[in-house]
User: Fold this.
Amino acid sequence: MITTKGLTKVYRTRDREVTALDGVDLHVREGEVHGVVGQSGAGKSTLIRAVNLLEVPTSGTVTVDGTDLTALAGNGKRAGAELRKARARIGMVFQHFNLLSARTVQDNVELPLEILGHSGAERSRKALELLDLVGLADKAKAYPAQLSGGQKQRVGIARALAGDPKVLLSDEATSALDPETTRSILQLLRDLNRDLGLTVLLITHEMDVVKAVCDSASLMKNGKITESGALSDLLATPGSEIAAELFPLTGDPLGAPDRTVVDITFLGENTGQPVISHLARTYNIDVSILGAAMDTVGGKQVGRMRIELPGPYEENVVPIGFLREQGLQIEIVGAADAVKDTQLVAGVAQ
Amino acid sequence: MNWSEIRPELLTGLYETVAMVGWASLIAVIGGVPLGVLLVLTDRGRPLQNALINKVIGFVVNVGRSLPFIILMLALTAFTRALTGTSIGLTGAIVPLAISAIPFFARLVETAVREVDGGLVEAVQAMGGSTRTVVFKALLPQALPSLVAGLTTTVVALIGYSAMAGAVGGGGLGDVAIRYGYQRYEGGVMLATVVLLVVLVNVVQLIGDFFVRTLSDRTTRSAAWLRAPRRTRTTVTAVASVGLVGALTAGTLGLTSEGDAGSDETITVAATPTPHGDIVKFVADNLAKDAGLKVEVKEFTDYVKPNEALANGDVDANFFQHVPFLDDFNKKKHTDLVPTVGILVEPIGIYSKSVDDVSALGSGDTIALPNDTTNEGRALHLLDDQGLIKLKKGTGLDASLNDIADDGGLTLKPLEAAQTPRALEDVDAAIVNGNYAIGAGLTPKKDALVLEKAKGNPYINILAVKKEDRDDPAIKKLGQLLNSDATKKFMEKKFPSSIPVFGPVK
Ligand SMILES: Nc1ncnc2c1ncn2[C@@H]1O[C@H](COP(=O)(O)OP(=O)(O)O)[C@@H](O)[C@H]1O
Ligand SMILES: [Mg+2]
Assistant:
């Protein structure tokens, strides 16, 4: 649904150049909720603004719903009629809502319809319908200043839906909201995704958001996407930073000198099985559990556990092989002089 | 002056102020909004980014902002004339007022529009809006409260500027204050105009504040205006706008048509208020009709404009100056204005509050004198005649302080001519023009230590016309009326210090 190829954006100021996007290849499938995470300044906002060409990329292409938007864009800051028409089919919601304070809630939602040239009666019918959809039917005549943050964002979402978009872009839409409100807005996005088949690209710096609504995610660093994929795949990928952030495990990863620390990820049907006791019994070893967590990610049950086996890595090759045979994701995070095949780095936070 | 005389002047002045400021504000909005919006849109990182256009508009606006209004008004004469056919009167004042208000308001619009959250622009663009949509649906509506506040500031500034409109005969309350309150020393009129102006400015500010508050107060919606349905609001706005523009148009036409009611017999005479304006008024009201003449007086509070208005045909004659002044103007402006008849001399005199005789003045004393070329020369010659100073040999009428050979130990203090009577308290003596002396409540014949001689005085105030009109029958007729016995009687009674000196002047 959304594909970017080799997307690059260089900001030139008088004295320096900033490469905000450095060859970004992003792919979001139809009907998917895709999250982009990364530290502040990583280029997330630049990326999402490039998707509807609010930011004209220095090079690379953006294709949304089969249309190459970069081909429609002129070379100036002004958008031609073709591009504007394409934008009308891409909804966008903003961190600070960006509602027009001089207009009522209903008039805000009608604005995209005015731009599309709908008649007055048609506009008001559609606006009321959308306000009903986001649960604000009774606030149609209110002004934005009379609403709470969550209500404002609902208006923002209703407005974004006015052009019957197939794609919704959201830049930190919940970052200005409290946790409770965040949850209800995310639920709304999830519902819209399910009920309307809306493809959602959302930018966030909060892993909880990804955990709550995303099917897939990408991690951005210094203008590049360093990993990307369905959450279940990422969780199954050794060394995935997104997975580590989604499931931070407590416990000292280095363990004692003559011990081996192993992270195990359970996915789907595996979660119900008594693997650890099975391991302990089969090999007659003392397994210490350093940390464990169970959660729902992208609508699926996922569990993670950090265990410690006695003895160095070499002595544990067989038990670890057993765990792999059970279809579990295994990661050796710490062992005395063990192979460090991974680097767990934290720091996905703003 | 009694109340029944003052009232019509005040009403006309009030109306002229409202008309001038009203039209100028309207034009300022029409011109200032697009300029202000363009200043923002063409700036870096904005939808119509264009450094060249941005710099050019910015420069033009700055030029307009930096010129003092009075200079702008006098400099725009040719332009105003080309645009409206006249450079004087109400119309002559509206054009420069509007021209100075456009850049002023444009900067306020720029600030207001710049303050609109960039996120809103982005939101409108993201929903497929064009730059036009951004301007009309986001920038202007969001900036509306600030725009109204800016307009209020502009209107108040215009009311202030309009006080200077008298220089081009534009009238208005400020002009009434200058002509009656300042130049004719009518304290009551001065007070009344000041009160009216204060009330006017406050009313404008109150109305402006009301709308700003109503527009920005979207949370409470307490204002009745906002509770009304949109259709009602649109209708009210439309009716009010049409009414306002209609009233302004009707009133302005009424006011301006007076001046050029156009029968061939009408002669418009430019004059400074006292005594010249009053003398022409006397002729117009009492003598003209029997002579089959219609005379209009156009009062100016500036000494350049009446000659300019005569030279370009806005008026048919003027009466405020003496021959040396006219010669100087003709030379500098390459015009061909000529004197017809002499009317009066207003002897310049030496006045003092501290001594009773010229002989008492001498070394160590300070004397104030007018600072404009002609009057300074005149004053220096008077001092020379009285033996208080010695001018260099061969010094002409245009004597200046540099032409003094021996100052007799006096300190000479040049001031604006109108200020010299006011300086009497602070100096030992002052040289004061006749009209200003009378204005200050002095009686020249009685109060002056010494006066210029009327006989052979080169400073006779004359009726001037364009050269080709010198022999025009109507002009000749007017000359006769001004030189009539009735006029002489009027002058002797009303302006005892103005000595009638009638007869043709070359
Ligand atoms: N208009 C701009 N001009 C210059 N530099 C910019 C501009 N917008 C963003 N940047 C720079 O590009 C980089 C990426 O910014 P952004 O996309 O906003 O990051 P994020 O949304 O991930 O915090 C930052 O270094 C930022 O300073
Ligand atoms: Mg950002």
